[in-house]
Amino acid sequence: MAEINLLEKYPRTKRNLDERVAQKTEEDVRIAKKFCKEYFDGTRNQGYGGYSFYERVWGGGV
């Protein structure tokens, strides 16, 4: 049976992902892994960047 690539026609991103990964510091990665206020309200390198963090919903982080 032949393998079918279901993602073959799926659109690909135009941004350089390797460049974006290289811009992240260890501190950015540490903050992103906590999934707390800085993840949502911090810079884009740390997570969503500018999204609204709701303490009641997400808690105080891990």
What this model shows, in words?
This protein is mainly α and 62 residues long. It has a domain at 18-58. It is built from four helices and no strands. The protein has helices at residues 17-23, 26-34, 37-41, 55-58. The mean pLDDT is 79.
Helix-strand makeup class: mainly alpha
Helix content: 40-55%
If you average the pLDDT, what whole number results?
79
Strand proportion, as a percent range, falls in: under 5%
Order of helical and strand elements: HHHH
Low-confidence stretches: none
**Major sheet characteristics:** none
Q: Kindly, what is the distance between the CA atoms of the first and last residues, rounded to a whole number of angstroms?
A: 46 Å
The tally of helices reads 4
How are the SSEs ordered, and which strands pair?
Blueprint: H1 17-23, H2 26-34, H3 37-41, H4 55-58
Quick structural gist:
The chain has four helices and no strands.
